[in-house]
Specification:
The complex is a heterodimer of chains A (89) and B (368). Chain A is built from three helices and five strands. Chain A is α+β, with helices and mostly antiparallel strands and 89 residues long. Chain A starts with a strand and ends with a strand. Chain B is 55% helix and 8% strand. Chain B starts with a helix and ends with a helix. The chains are: A alpha+beta (89), B alpha+beta (368).
């Protein structure tokens, strides 16, 4: 199972409408909104998309099926930008 | 009655401080006041405090104003992240060349002394380097494309007498490299070995970096406010954070203050903080600052910094008293009277600068 964790070189700040992320090695800043802060907190340690989706769903009292596609989309985007990295066990 | 931009700015700077008597406005600031208020929030790096006040619904705003605060805060945080990226590359480079450093001011306070770095915006970077490594650090930075604002008056002047130097990157980011915490007599009396005591580490994006210990950071914050003719509210907020929230060793702090003869500076800084942030709670240090009676000579020294428009040449001339050895006094004066051509270029003639410096010195000491 693949888990994901924050990249070791990512600088970040919370802002009123989400989170700003920037890799210290280069590239543009990434701005994520919605439940970005919770998502970022959860990926402080390696976590699977399913477990993070379940936790966010519980936090906002929403069905997991509804939340999971959004989490997967954000994770894919952040992995593509080097903000999150995959850890294969 | 509608709150003014000034009152609102002070209330934002004091937001959530225990014991502040400042009230937030009871209604959104009117369209005639809002733009100047927001411009001053940005100028004074108070975007983090304003965002926190808006998020807590303590500062009433219209929908449009809320959108502006969100955008302005995001922009300032973006700037902080870019500065932190620069910080990481700079300290790595210094480290590779064996140059010790300490992160000073905003970048360190944000991570070490505020509950959330998003509360403390900063607009530049400040690093302390050792006197004996100052020239090496300056040439390393120049080699990496940093542009130095002003050359040193004479070779070796910076590492012996100057506060430091300002550099700018090609992208326009500013880096202040310090040797001590202040220019002039107060800066020269600081015991530099104390600034290099056991460092406080913190991480920036996973990279470990070093700052000065808590009490030394608090001293630095007091210098930022205490020797400024028009101190910023953000600097006062820093002092309030140190004195009201940080687990400071008060005796150690006062030892540092006394060792470098900074009591007049620190007392002024704390007094202004308690006055402008309207803090009613009395602490041992705020009570000390209120009772403090400044001696005549210290009053004259302080006037060199706080009397509006006094030139740095006047501060430099007053520094002579704080330089212990006669030979060093002579070197210091020689560098000011006969500076190198690079230094003089674009700064007016030596006689003009000296004349102005002496005039300022007289004006400031007469006003004290």
């Amino acid at each position: 199972m693949t888990t994901y964790v924050r990249g070791p070189d990512v600088l970040w700040r919370s802002c009123l409408d989400g989170l700003l992320l920037l890799r210290d090695s280069g590239g543009e800043a990434v701005h994520i909104t919605g439940s970005a802060f919770e998502l970022w907190q959860l990926f402080a340690h390696p976590r699977s998309v399913d477990s993070v989706g379940a936790e966010i769903a519980a936090l906002y009292r929403l069905p997991v099926d509804e939340v999971l596609p959004h989490v997967r989309e954000v994770v894919d985007q952040l992995v593509g930008q080097g903000i999150l990295r995959g850890v294969t066990r | 009655m509608t709150a003014s931009a000034d009152e609102s700015l002070r209330a934002v700077a004091a937001f959530a401080l225990p014991g502040t008597l400042h009230d937030m406005p009871h209604e959104p600031l009117p369209a005639g006041v809002w733009p100047s208020f927001l411009a001053r929030v940005r100028r004074d790096n108070l975007t983090g405090q304003l965002a926190a006040a808006v998020a807590a619904e303590a500062m009433p705003v219209t929908d449009d104003q809320c959108a502006e605060v969100t955008a302005v805060h995001r922009e300032s945080m973006h700037n902080c992240l870019l500065l932190e990226r620069l910080l990481i590359s700079t300290v790595r480079s210094l480290g590779e060349h064996g140059i010790d450093y300490r992160v000073l001011k905003g970048a360190a306070y944000a991570h070490l002394d505020y509950p959330d770095p998003a509360c403390r915006a900063f607009g530049d970077l400040d690093l302390l380097v050792r006197s004996e490594q100052f020239d090496l650090a300056a040439s390393l930075l120049a080699g990496e494309g940093y542009r130095r604002h002003f050359p040193e008056p004479r070779r070796g002047f910076d590492r012996r007498f100057n506060k430091g130097a300002t550099f700018t990157t090609g992208d326009g980011f500013e880096l202040d490299v310090h040797r001590t915490l202040a220019l002039g007599p107060f800066g020269l009396r600081i015991r530099l070995d104390r600034l290099w005591a056991d460092p406080d580490p913190f991480t920036v994006g996973g990279t470990p970096v070093l700052s000065m210990p808590l009490e030394q950071r608090a001293l630095n914050a007091c210098f930022s406010v205490g020797i400024d003719a028009a101190p910023r509210l953000m600097g006062m907020r820093d002092i309030a954070e140190f004195l009201l929230h940080a687990p400071m060793d008060r005796d150690l702090f006062m030892t540092l203050v006394d060792e470098c003869g900074a009591a007049p500076v620190v007392a002024r800084a704390i007094y202004l903080t308690w006055r402008d942030l309207a803090i009613a709670d009395v602490t041992a240090l705020s009570a000390w600052a209120r009772r403090y009676r400044i001696e005549e000579r210290a009053r004259r020294d302080l006037a060199l910094y706080t009397y509006p428009g006094v030139s740095t040449t006047a501060q430099s001339l007053a520094s002579v008293r704080a330089i212990p050895r006669l030979r060093d006094k002579a070197s210091f004066l020689a560098a000011l009277v006969f500076p190198g051509e690079d230094f003089v270029r674009g700064r007016g003639s030596m006689h003009t600068r000296l004349r102005r410096g002496l005039k300022d010195l007289r004006r400031a000491t007469e006003s004290a």
